């Protein structure tokens, strides 16, 4: 992440720059609002740290002009006049947060890391939306609306796990959309052209569970008159969604764990 520090005090700039570079950020300095605006026009900046009181253009006016250039830029205002009124005014201008002088570096780090996480989430959401547009002929059963931070975190995580071969545990209360998230992971993955198979574990009798998941050979038990393909084989190359997995019989859990770990199954 590229951070622009705007402060007329060289000592303050050097202090913040040294601290942020140790955290791994790329840092650019500006000694006043005019220089900051000139840099901002030429350089891609993710976050601006700017002093509220500076000679010439104030921090508020500088932020307003930066926002006019790029409304999406994130910012933290640093002020020696901390108050509720200051916070309200800064937020109205579009700042993400504000800090009082002298700057508490630990607090600053937490605020920056949160903003960095928000930026990464927004990038993940843009990619999810773009990829869903590409899958227009295979829409989800209902649209997913993610405006709150927790939902954005969920979709960001969906984007990240969808490109992996990992087994995913989705947990949540009944009706919160676990199946929808499972389908979204499938649609965003390389498995999207293969089957998506679902099973509600609460609806299968215990004595039929193993056969349902792994299939069985002819004569494996009374009534097994022919070979039967289980859901794992049906979903080969795709995804299998085991709903209400907490209802899975204890005796079957080690076999399921082995199948997930070794990517192999054995029919009954």
UniProtKB/TrEMBL annotation:
Keyword ATP-binding included in the entry's annotation: yes
CDD domains reported in the protein's UniProt record: AAA (cd00009)
Residues covered by the Sigma-54 factor interaction domain: 144-268
UniProt xrefs under Pfam families: Response_reg, Sigma54_activat
Domain Response regulatory: 2-116
GO biological process, any: phosphorelay signal transduction system
The keyword Glycoprotein appears for this protein: no
Keyword entries, A-Z: ATP-binding, Nucleotide-binding, Phosphoprotein
TM region(s), chain numbering: none
SMART domains listed in its UniProt record: REC
InterPro entries (UniProt xref): CheY-like_superfamily (IPR011006), P-loop_NTPase (IPR027417), Sig_transdc_resp-reg_receiver (IPR001789), Sigma_54_int (IPR002078), Sigma_54_int_dom_ATP-bd_1 (IPR025662)
Residues with PTM 4-aspartylphosphate: 51
GO molecular function terms attached to this record: ATP binding
Annotated PANTHER family: ALGINATE BIOSYNTHESIS TRANSCRIPTIONAL REGULATORY PROTEIN ALGB, TRANSCRIPTIONAL REGULATORY PROTEIN
Name of the featured protein: Sigma-54-dependent Fis family transcriptional regulator
Organism annotation: Dissulfuribacter thermophilus
